[in-house]
Amino acid sequence: MTDWHKKIKNYLGEGTYECTLDDKVFKKAVKELNEDPKQRALQIEALRQWVIQQPHLRNTRTDDIFLLRFLRHAKFSQLKAQKTLDNFWTVRTVEGKGAPEWFKNMDPKDPKNEEILDIGMQVPLPGRDDNGRKVILVRTGGYDPYKHDFGFTLKTGFMMNDILLLDEENQVHGFVILLDFSEFGVAHATNWNREIIGKAMKCWQDVYPTRNKGVHYYNTPTLFNALMEIFRFFMKDKMKNRTKFHWASLESLHKDIPKRMLPDYLGGEAGTLEDLKKSWKAEVMANREELLLNGKYSVDESKRPSDDGTLGLQGSFRKLAVD
C-alpha cells in the first residue's frame, strides 16, 4: 500500500473525503480551481447524484476521491465535470465511441503489460518542477515496432494516468509531458496514423481529468514534421500554445525541465533511466488494485438517454449554489 493510500480513510467511501493537501497547494486549488472547502462535499454529492440518475452510468464509480478529480479538472463546473466523466467511461468501454481495446485488461501483472512496463516507454520523473508539476518522460521510439503492439504501449500510459491521479497534488498542479524522439524511426512513424493520433489526443484532452500544462519535444527527426501536422489538427488551441521544441539542445531542455528531475542520459541528476524504470514499475505494481478496480466498470450504451446535444448533462452547481 502506498503512502497516498495510507492517508485515506474508507478509500471508496461516499461522504468520507478528507483533504490531504498542504496549505500552499490548497491555496492554489482555491485560487485556480475554485475549490471551496465549505461547499466541496455538496459539490461531490451533486456530481454523485447526477451519475446515479444516468441509466447508462449506473455501473461506474461514485466514491468521493474519484469524483473530486473530475470536479477539480473542471474548476468545479458540474457541466464540465459531467462531460469529462461520461467521456472517461464511454471511451474506455464503448466500441465506435472510443478505444476500449486500449483499456481492456489493465492488469500490470499480465505478461504483455509487464513487458511494456519493463521497457519503460513512459516514466514519471522524480520530484516536481519549479511549478509543482509532475513531468512525464515518454520515449516515443522506446519500443520495437516489429515486436510490440502499439496499443499496448498506449495502455501503459493510461495505466500511468490512473495511478498519478490518485495524488491530489497532481490534480492541482497538473502535468508536463516530455517527448523524447531520440530512438524514433520510420518504423515507429508508420504506427502513428491519423486514426490512432486522433483517438490518443481525444483520450489525453477530453477523457482524463488531467491538467495538461505543457508538452516539450526533444530531438525530433525530420520525418516527424508530417505527423506533427496531424497532432496539431487534433490539438486544442490552448495546448498549441503550450508546446515547445528543443530540437537536440539539452541546454534548451534544461531551461524548462530541471536537471534534478532528468535521467543522466538527458544530462540530468536523477540517476539512470534503468533505475527510474524499475522504480516506476514497482509503483505500478503497488497500485494494481486501482487499475483492476477501474476495469470492473463500464457504460451501458443501450440505456443512454436520447442525445439532446448535452448527453443529459445538467447545469453548473456553482451557479445553482449562488442562486
Automatic annotation (TrEMBL):
Top-level taxon of origin: Eukaryota
Protein's UniProt name: Uncharacterized protein
GO molecular function: phosphatidylinositol bisphosphate binding
GO CC aspect terms: membrane
